[in-house]
Automatic annotation (TrEMBL), chains A, B:
The keyword Transcription regulation applies. Coiled coil: none annotated. Keywords: DNA-binding, Transcription, Transcription regulation. Pfam families: HTH_20. CDD domains: HTH_ARSR. Residues 1-96 form the HTH arsR-type domain. The keyword Lyase does not apply. This is ArsR family transcriptional regulator.
DNA sequence: TGCCTCCATCGTCCATCGACGATAAACGAT
DNA sequence: ATCGTTTATCGTCGATGGACGATGGAGGCA
C-alpha cells in the first residue's frame, strides 16, 4: 500500500473532522461501551449514515468493532487517539532533533511595516 | 454565526487533514518564518493551489498571514494548535468532571462470544 | 420454518474539495 | 509610466463526501 506518514495522519484527522463522528467518539469515550443502536438513537441521523460514519472511524483505526450475537459493539482505540493527539502536538513543537522552540527570526519581520490580512 | 464547539473543532481538524496542508504546517513550524513563495517552491503544487491551502489554514485560525510589501508572510498560530492538540487528547481521556479514565464496563462484553469484524 | 430485529452495504443525489490555468491586484524597480 | 514579480481570486472540471432509502444477511425467537 505504501502509505506515507502524512497520508495516514491526514486520514485519521479527516476521520475525526466531522461533527457526527466527533459525537460518536465522545459517546464511546464516555461510555466505553458500544452498541451501534444506542449511537444511532443518540444522533438524529439515519441508521445507514451512522453506519458509514462508524466505518470511516474504524478504517482510520480510531475505533474497533466486534460482532456480539445480533448486534455490533464499538469501542474507542484510545492508544491510536493518544498517538494522534501527540502527532498534532508535535506539529507546533516541531524540530524533534536539535533545539526545540527556536526563537523567532526577527530579521524576517522587520523589513517593512506589516499589516494583518 | 452560532458555531457549535464541535463544528469549530471539526473545521480545524479538516483544515489539518490534508497532506499538503500538513506539509505547510510543518514548514512553518520548522522555520517560524513564512514567505508564501518559499512554500510554493517546496511543494510541487501550483501557486494557486498552495494559496488556497493557505487560505483554508488561515480561516481555521491555524496560521496567521501578514502582508509585507509585495509579498505575504505566514506564521503558525501555535496557541491554537496547542488548544487543538489538547482537544484531541481530551477526546479519549474524556469525562472532564467525575472520575477520569473509567474502568471498562466488563458486563458489556461478556454476554456472548465476540468476533472481530 | 418463518418472522423480526439489528446492522452493513448498495445506489443515488447534491454539495464540497482539490487541482489547475487564467486573470487581477499590489508593489518595487527601471 | 511601465514592467516584472508576487500573491489572491475566479472559473472549471473531475473526484470525493455525506445524506438518504432500499436491500440483504445474520442471528434470536415463536
Amino acid at each position: 500500500m505504501m502509505m506515507a506518514d502524512d497520508d495516514l495522519l491526514a486520514l485519521r484527522l479527516r476521520a475525526l473532522a466531522h461533527p457526527a463522528r466527533l459525537a460518536i467518539v465522545r459517546a464511546l469515550a464516555a461510555a466505553d461501551r458500544c452498541q451501534c443502536g444506542e449511537i444511532v438513537r443518540g444522533l438524529t441521523l439515519a441508521q445507514s449514515t451512522v453506519s458509514q460514519h462508524l466505518k470511516v472511524l474504524k478504517e482510520a483505526g480510531l475505533i474497533t468493532g466486534t460482532i456480539e450475537g445480533p448486534r455490533s459493539c464499538y469501542c474507542l482505540d484510545r492508544e491510536t487517539l493518544a498517538v494522534l493527539a501527540g502527532q498534532v502536538g508535535g506539529l507546533f513543537a516541531a524540530l524533534e532533533d536539535g533545539q526545540r522552540n527556536p526563537a523567532p527570526r526577527a530579521d524576517a519581520l522587520v523589513s517593512s511595516p506589516s499589516t494583518p490580512i
